[in-house]
């Protein structure tokens, strides 16, 4: 997990603490972990092994004995192929685009990341140009009498 992702998670938790009691957040997180695990048909031990955690850790998360760290939540999100926001109440519906972009660009060198940003800006500009060309012209513009 890079610094910006960790910061995002910490800020999200901080924001949610103001909206929802902390205990409610961890109750929600434990339910989401259980639901995702059961949906995939995994035992607690199998999930723990899949994400390289001690075998009793998942049980302790699900019973709220332990609280998963930001890094552990990221491992779970990657394993279940969900956005990390899925673990936080009220944020489940947020777009997965930022998470997908962060995941896709993780580990890129600065030059490569800048190239990705330039390409995204190029695509955005090209799309805007296509939309502008597709707009029907006003009657006076078609005749050349703008």
TrEMBL record:
PROSITE patterns: HTH_CROC1 (PS50943)
Keywords assigned by UniProt, alphabetized: DNA-binding
Keyword DNA-binding among UniProt keywords: yes
HTH cro/C1-type domain mapped to chain residues: 33-87
SUPFAM superfamilies documented for this protein: lambda repressor-like DNA-binding domains (SSF47413)
Species assigned in the record: Methyloceanibacter marginalis
Protein known as: HTH cro/C1-type domain-containing protein
Molecular function as annotated in GO: DNA binding
UniProt cross-references to InterPro entries, sorted A to Z: Cro/C1-type_HTH, Lambda_DNA-bd_dom_sf
